[in-house]
Amino acid sequence: MIVQKIPVSILGATGTVGQKFVRLLAAHPWFEIASVAASAQSAGKRYGEVVRWRESTPLPERIAAMTVQAADPGIPGRITFSAIEAEIAGQVEQAFARAGAYVVTNTKTHRMEPDVPLLVPEVNPGHLDLLPRQQRERGWSGGIVANPNCSTAGLVLGVAPLHQAFGIEKIFVATMQAVSGAGYPGVASLDALGNVIPYIGGEEEKLEQETAKILGSFTAGAVDPAGLVTSAHTNRVPVVDGHLEVVSLGFGRRVSPEEAIAALEGFRAPVDVAALPSTPARPVEYDARPDRPQSRLDLDRGAGMTVTVGRLRRCPLLDLRLVLLSHNTVRGAAGAAIQNAELLVQRGYVAR
Amino acid sequence: MIVQKIPVSILGATGTVGQKFVRLLAAHPWFEIASVAASAQSAGKRYGEVVRWRESTPLPERIAAMTVQAADPGIPGRITFSAIEAEIAGQVEQAFARAGAYVVTNTKTHRMEPDVPLLVPEVNPGHLDLLPRQQRERGWSGGIVANPNCSTAGLVLGVAPLHQAFGIEKIFVATMQAVSGAGYPGVASLDALGNVIPYIGGEEEKLEQETAKILGSFTAGAVDPAGLVTSAHTNRVPVVDGHLEVVSLGFGRRVSPEEAIAALEGFRAPVDVAALPSTPARPVEYDARPDRPQSRLDLDRGAGMTVTVGRLRRCPLLDLRLVLLSHNTVRGAAGAAIQNAELLVQRGYVAR
Amino acid sequence: MIVQKIPVSILGATGTVGQKFVRLLAAHPWFEIASVAASAQSAGKRYGEVVRWRESTPLPERIAAMTVQAADPGIPGRITFSAIEAEIAGQVEQAFARAGAYVVTNTKTHRMEPDVPLLVPEVNPGHLDLLPRQQRERGWSGGIVANPNCSTAGLVLGVAPLHQAFGIEKIFVATMQAVSGAGYPGVASLDALGNVIPYIGGEEEKLEQETAKILGSFTAGAVDPAGLVTSAHTNRVPVVDGHLEVVSLGFGRRVSPEEAIAALEGFRAPVDVAALPSTPARPVEYDARPDRPQSRLDLDRGAGMTVTVGRLRRCPLLDLRLVLLSHNTVRGAAGAAIQNAELLVQRGYVAR
Amino acid sequence: MIVQKIPVSILGATGTVGQKFVRLLAAHPWFEIASVAASAQSAGKRYGEVVRWRESTPLPERIAAMTVQAADPGIPGRITFSAIEAEIAGQVEQAFARAGAYVVTNTKTHRMEPDVPLLVPEVNPGHLDLLPRQQRERGWSGGIVANPNCSTAGLVLGVAPLHQAFGIEKIFVATMQAVSGAGYPGVASLDALGNVIPYIGGEEEKLEQETAKILGSFTAGAVDPAGLVTSAHTNRVPVVDGHLEVVSLGFGRRVSPEEAIAALEGFRAPVDVAALPSTPARPVEYDARPDRPQSRLDLDRGAGMTVTVGRLRRCPLLDLRLVLLSHNTVRGAAGAAIQNAELLVQRGYVAR
C-alpha cells in the first residue's frame, strides 16, 4: 500500500496530452501532481489561466491554482511525465534523466533508441530491464521510458495474444485514426469534415518499426526485434477519439479463427502488471457481434485502456483477419505513460 | 451521330440510384427517358409527387410530370436501367430481357452469372461478347449487362493499368466507404456520426469475386477469372460520397513505383470506349501530392467517372501500395450503368 | 432510507430511451427493474437477444437475462417507466394507471392534459398535486406523470431562475438539436452529415405550449399557464447528443446581465427535490467563458442532469440573450422521468 | 459586349477566399486575372507552388504559372479584388484606391465607413453613388467598394423583398454557419466535429450593423441606415459550406404568410443588375417543402448566388418566421465581390 503519494511533474502540461495527464493523475491512487511545466510564455502564470481546458470533466481547482513552471530539471517530481514537442524532447528529457528523474515520455524522440524501453506493460514488461544499462551507459541516476505511438499501442496489444500463442510473421494494417491524435488545433475542420485523409506524416514508419521492437525479445541486456514484417496504411477519419484498425495476419503455421479467439479471450496481463491501477481487468476483449468494435461505441471499455477486437475470420491472402479499436489518447498516450510509471514503481525503480 | 435519341426506361426510379439515373440521363446526348417505373404504391402517380428528390440539381420538369409505371416489360424503352431491389431483380430483369429489352443493371443479382457481362468499359469491354451466348442459351432477344459493386468499380479501374502492364497476383484492400452507398435512408445517423463501422454485409465477398471476373480474360465464349487473390476489409465512414481505398499489390515480378506511375499515367481507354459520352478524358489520374486523393476534394474529377490514384510507394509485404478514390454513386453505380449502355450502342447491340 | 428497493417496470424497453432507462436504473439506489416490456414480437424472448444495445456501458447481465413481457398491466412493478410510441401510449398508459401503477412517461400523449402533472422537479414540483384530482376524476388508484419534450426540458430549467426572479414575458428560442432526439434509426445519415435540417415535426408547438404549462402556477387544483409567449425555431444539427438553444428573453422590467447571472448562480432546487438521487448539486450552472456551453464539451455536467447557461448579454430587441445546453436523452428524457419517479416517492405517492 | 477583357488583380490570392476568386474569375466573361498578390514570403514564387489549392476544380494552368506579386499598387489590374487580412487592409486597400484602382473588397475594414458603398447589387445598387463623394473627399482616382459579411449577405438578400414590400422594423436571427466561413485552417476539427460553438467573434455586431446600412436609403449623397433593430445569435455548426439562418420578422403592419411568399416569389433584380454575369436568374427562391432549405442540399442554386427561403409562417412574438440559406463563400464572399465589380463596369465607373 502506498501511504504517501509520489510527487510527479508534467512537461507540456497545457497541450492535449498534457491535459489528459492532469485529468488522469488528479485522482491517481499512487501519484500526486507536484508541478506542471510548459513553454516559457506560460511559465509564471497560473495553470488555470493559460490552459485552454478541453476535457469534459472540470479542471481540478488545486491544479488550476498551480503556477506553471519552465521545463527545468529542478522542479518538484520524482517521476516526470513528458508530452512535449519532439523537437525539444531530446534535450529536455535527457536533462531530467541526468538530474535523477524517471522520465515517462509519450514523445517519439527516444522510442527507437536501443537502450530505451518501449513498453506496453501487458506485453513486454521485461523490456524495462533495459533501464540499468541505460543508466550505466549514459551515466544517469534517472532514466527514460517510452510508450509507443497511439496507433502502435492498439495494434501491439490487440495482436499480442496471437503473437504469444502462434507467432506472427506478417501484418497488414490499415488504420482509421481519430483527429484527437493530431493534438489541438491539429487537423483543420475543412480537412476533417466529411473527408478521409490517407496520409499521416511518419505514422506508417512508426507502426512498422515500433511493433517489431515491442514484440521483440529481451536477451543479453538488449531487445532483439521480432522478425515480423508490417505493412501499414494510415488514414485520418472524421472521428473525435478512437483509432480503428483492420488487420490481416500471417503466422508460421495454420491458425483457425476459433484458436485465435480462444487466445484473445484467454489473454491476461502478468500478475504484477495486472495489479497496476491503470491495467484494466481485460486488456483485450473479443466482441463477437458482426459489426463491432465501432469507434464511438466501444471506446471506453476498461476506462479507455482495453483494446477491443472483433470480426476474427480467415484471410484469403494471409491467415486471419480482424478489426481492433483502442482509445488513442488514453491507451495510446497519457494512460499508457501512467501505466508505465506504475510499472516503474511496482518493479522497484521508483521507491514508494 | 445520333439524330433521334434512344428511348430508355428506369426501374427503381425513385430510389437513390434511380434519382441519379434521372439526373444523369436528363441531359444525355444519346438517351431519352421514356418511362420511369417504381413499386406498386407509386405507380399511377406523378414522379414529382412520389420522389423525395435529393440530388442538388433541380428535378427536371419533364420528368417530374411523368406518370410512374409499374415495372412491366411493356413500358416504353429500348434500354432499361435497373436500380431495383436485389430481391426482385432476378424475376423483373429477366422478364424485361425476355421481352427484348437490354437491361443495364446496377443490382447485384446477375453479376456473377457466367453468361452475364460484368463490365468496366475501359477495362474489359470485350466481355460484352458474352451477350450472344446469353441470348442464345436463354432464348432472349434482349439481354442483361451488369456493372460492378461500387467498391469494386473503383478498385478495378484504379489497378487495371497495373494489371495490364505487370500482372497482379495479390490484392490487399481496405475500404473507407461513403454512406450514400447504402441508399436512403440507409445508414442511421447515430451509427454514422463520428464513427466507423467496420462491416458492410456481403461487400468483402463482392470485392473479392467481382474483381477476378472483371480482370479475367474472355476466351472461347467464356470469361476465365483472373488468377489473383484479393483480401478485402470494408468499412463505412462518415463521408457523404466517395469510396477511398488503400491497396497493397503483389505482382509476378518486381515493379518499381516509377514504372507503376508511368503505367497509370499512360493508361487510356480503348478508342471506341474513349468515344463514349460518359468516358472521361482520363479514366485514371495519378495525383502526386503526398496526401491525396481525399474523399471530399477529389471526388468530382471527370464528372465523377475518373478514379484518382495517389501515394504509390513500395509495400514491405507485397510489392506496391497506393490509395485510390472513386465516386460511388457515379462511377460505382448510375454513371457506370449509363456508360455500359453507351457501349451497347457503340458496339451495335442496340441500334441507333 | 430505503432498505428494500421499489420494483419498477419499463415499457418500450428496447428502444433508445428504453435502453437509457435500463442503464440509469441498473444501479439506482431506490429502484430495481422488475420487468421489461416491449412489442408483441419481442415478448417472450430474452432482453439480451432482442435489444440492439447502443449504450457505451455494457448491458447488465441480470437485465440481459430477463424475459421481455408484453405491455400488460399485470407485469411486476409499482412504478412504470414509459417510453412507448405515442400512437399506443394513450391506451396502454391509462390501462396501467387504472390498474394501480404510477406511470412516469416520456411520451408526449398525456403531457398537455389538464390533470396530468408535467414536471421539471426543480421548477414546478408542486404541480404533482394534480395527481389526487387525476385519480379522483378518472377513478384511478395509480396515475400518470409526464416529463416535458427534450428541447423544452432544457429551456424551462435554464430560464426558470430568471422567471422566478424577474418574470419572463417573451421568449425567442432557436434550437440546435442532436440526432439522438429522434431515436434509432431516426435521422438518416444522408440527412445529417454536414447538414442542418430546419424542421422537426411538432417540436415548435411543444416548446411553445409545454413551457407555459410548466412555468404556470398551481392554484385551486389546476395549473394556470404562465402568461408568456414563446416563438421557437427548431433545427436538427449533426451532433450525437446535446440540445443547444439560443434564447432571447423579455421581462416585465429592465434586468441587467449581472442580476440575471446572479439569479442563475443562486438558483437551487427546493430542499426535498435537492435530496433526490437524480437531482444534480447544481441544476443550472453558469459558464462565463465567451464561447460556452458547447454541445460536445459541456454535456455531461451533473451526470447529464445539469443545464449549462452561458453568454448572458443584452438583447437589442428584448432584454437579455443567452445560450443553454442540456443532455437530451438524460435531462430531456430518461433521467427526467426517473427524477419524477423519485419525487413521487419523496412526496409519499409511492410508499417506500 | 466586352471584346477585350478587363485586367484584374487579386490581393490575398492564396487564402480560401482568394482561391475562390481565382476559380470564379478564371472563366469570367468580362474579367481576366492579370496579377495575383500575396504576402512577402510568397512573392516571387509561382502561384502553383505556394498555394495549397483546395477548390474541387483543378487550378487553371495559366494561373498556376503566374508569379506571385507583393501587394503593391503598381501591379497590373484596373480592378483589385481584396481578400487580405483585416489588420493590413486599411493601409493596402487605400494605397490601391489612391493609385487609381477600384478596390472591391471582401474584408471588413472599410464596410461601415460612411463614404464606402456596402453593396448587395440586387438590393441597394444605388449606394454605389457614394463613390463620387468618396473620391472627391479622399482625393482618389480609384475607390473602395465593399460586400457584406457572409452571414449578412444571406440575411439581407433573403429579407429584402419583404422589406421593400412591407417595411421591416424588427429582426431576430439565429445563424448556423459553416466552417468555411472561418477560412483555412480556421476552426479546429476538435472544435467542429459533432459540436456547436455558439460564438463567432464580432459576427453578431456585423449582422446587426451592416443590415441597417444596406437596407438604408441613399439621399443627399449619404446612406441613411434603415430604422430596424436586429438581434443576432451566431453559431458555428459542423457543415462545410452554407450558412442557414432562422429569422423572425416584425413589420409596421400585419403581413400574411401568403403576401410574404408572393413578395419573395415576385422579387427580381433591377434590370441592369439582372444583366450582370454573376446575378442569378432568381436571386431569391422560395421553397415550399416543409423541411427546406437544408445546408447541404440547397446550397448551389444559382451557382451559389441564390438565397433560398423556406418555412414562411406566422411568429407568435413578431409577425412572420422563415428559414434562409446562402452560400457563404460565393454569395457571402468572392461571388459577391465579383458581382460588385460587374456593377462598377455596368454603371460606368470602370470603362469596358
CATH class of the largest domain in chain A: Alpha Beta
**What is the oligomeric state here?**
homotetramer
Strand content of chain A: 15-25%
Question: What is the count of β-strands of chain A?
Answer: 13
* Widest sheet, order of strands of chain A: 9-6-10-13-12-11
CATH topology type of the largest domain in chain A: Dihydrodipicolinate Reductase, domain 2
CATH architecture type of the largest domain in chain A: 2-Layer Sandwich
Largest sheet features of chain A: 6 strands, mixed
The number of distinct structural domains of chain A comes to 2
General shape of chain A:
globular
> Helical region count of chain A?
11
Which chains share the greatest interface? Answer: A-B, 42 and 42 residues
Task: State the end-to-end distance of chain A.
Answer: 9 Å
Q: How is this fold's topology laid out?
A:
Four copies of one chain form a homotetramer.
Chain A: E1 6-11, H1 16-26, E2 31-37, H2 47-50, H3 61-64, E3 79-82, H4 86-98, E4 102-105, H5 130-138, E5 143-146, H6 150-166, E6 168-177, H7 189-192, H8 203-214, E7 217-219, E8 222-224, E9 229-236, E10 243-251, H9 257-266, H10 271-274, E11 284-287, E12 307-314, E13 320-326, H11 330-346
Parallel strand pairs in A: 1-2, 1-3, 3-4, 4-5, 6-9, 11-12
Antiparallel strand pairs in A: 6-10, 7-8, 10-13, 12-13
Helix pairs in contact in A: 1-11, 6-8, 6-9, 6-11
